Known about the structure:
Blueprint: E1 5-12, H1 15-46, H2 52-65, H3 67-70, H4 74-92, E2 110-115, E3 120-123, E4 128-133, E5 137-142, E6 150-158, E7 163-170, E8 185-190, E9 196-198, E10 203-204, H5 211-234, H6 240-274, E11 277-281, H7 285-288, H8 303-316, H9 318-332, E12 335-339, E13 364-366, E14 373-375, H10 376-386, H11 438-446, H12 463-477, H13 479-488, H14 492-512, H15 520-540, H16 544-548, H17 551-567
Parallel strand pairs: 8-11, 11-12
Antiparallel strand pairs: 1-5, 1-7, 2-6, 3-4, 4-5, 6-7, 8-9, 9-10, 13-14
Helix pairs in contact: 1-4, 2-4, 5-6, 6-9, 11-13, 11-14, 12-17, 13-14, 14-15, 15-17
Amino acid sequence: MKADTGRRYRLYPSDEQAVRLASWGHTCRWLYNTAWEQRQFAWRQRKVTLGLAAQCASLTQARRDFDWVADLPAQSGQQVLRQLNQAYQNWWNPQHPAGAPTRKRRSVRLSIPFPGQAVHVRRLNRRWSAVTLPKVGEVRFRWSRPLGGAVRNAVVSFDGVAWHIGFGVHAGVKAPEAHAQPGTVVGVDRGVKVALAMSDGRMWNRAFTTAGQERDLARLKSKAGRQETARRKRGLKTSNRARKVRAEIGRTEAKIRNRRRDFVMWAANRICAQHAIVKLENLNTKAMTATAKGTIEEPGTNVRQKAGLNRAILDKGWGMFETALANQGRTTGTRIVKVPAAFTSQRCSRCGNTHPNNRESQATFRCGSCGHQANADVNAAINIRDAAEATPPLTGRAVRDRNRKASCRPPTHPALQATGAGSGNLPPLGRSGCQGNKEKLFAAAAEFDLHLPDARQLPQERLGEALVRHFLQRWEVDESLAALLRAAVTNNAAAERMRQIFATQVAPAVAAGCPDPAEAARRAGLIASQILGLALCRYVVQLPPVAAMTSDELAARVGPVVTGYLTGAS
Length: 570
């Protein structure tokens, strides 16, 4: 049985227990980072991918060598290694959107994982319960809701304000076949002034900070910045005063996060309970909140205005709300639908007239055609409600951040996926991981042999089909070529690598089967336009009609076109 829902409670450890749990939290972070570095080192030095078993053996040796590692429960250390292993499995899975695993910073939330068999929950009274943790004993927590199932795992965490314990519970949660109110549809517009505006006229908003808290937080962050600058100039360690300032910043930000989470969960619960279909704009929040600083060579424009917009979007919790809706929809049978976001705020919900001048201000919408006047956010929510469903979202590597530097490439051959060879010990190996970047990827791609078939050994009428089949097979088995194609659209270095591959491999192969040597380069270019266009639509943009076709169908349809370019009259 696997956990299918979660329960989170406020934990109240004693002072001694809190100190020990905090120490374990830092040990878990160290263990995760060290295991990550160990994998980086093994791959860079020996092209060996360490598995979970090998790293668990290294953990056993580290527990013998270091008392502070041995103080951490063995089950918790193994759970940390399982988390890292799962992070790599997600990265290697072509259908998963996860990127390359990275180090955990010191500023992240402290957490200690436990398997379900290592913890025991005991009810004390109506308001209190206790959980028994290895080496800590019983720790009280507030019984704010029933568990509702069997405990499969637990995570003790500290968010800067208080300790919490989260249980992964198997409760047999299944989505109902139909919503309690079938046929009910609502459009929800997310904004920066008003968090949520609905097509039925409701508008929900909440302030997560006061003006005084914003001033205090800005003052604390400024003070922390001055302390850090002074520390670096003098080459000193972080002082206790600086630690206290950072802790105060953490407590304040944790309070703000808790208020935002409470509002988002509250809103998602009520919307899903009342509607069978919830429509949202198909927004890429991560891209929308990217920095506009640019580089020294190409500095950004309107940086301060963009930074303010980014803070406003993140403060309203757009992404968190979308996740909360998806989670809540599992229990109510609500269907979450994404619609195209273009022009929803400029289109009149009554007559359909679309013009930028229709939106007079942030809150006022007045149609220049029919004179319809309404709240701008509510008008946008109505357009969202009435819009057709957007194209199915991209999955897997197609939605990953193309510009993110990968720590190291995943293995592409089963022989490289060793589980125990050369594991070494787990103590720190230093910052020696493979810090790969796009330039290394482009250089590697330029060295690939496409193994193009010899055009002279194939029937003329089947040349195009053979080439299309060959390239489809290469695109599907070699992810680096797809990554190179995505990057070549905007990166000059990647485009140059593509031109090198064309000049050294594609053009000579086409020339061998071309009846007119003088036309070989032009014909090769036309063939490349077909092959690259097909790959762009199928593997990058993932147009549904093209992505749904089989390789045989594509070869049968595109092959004759390529044959015409290759052997047809000039």
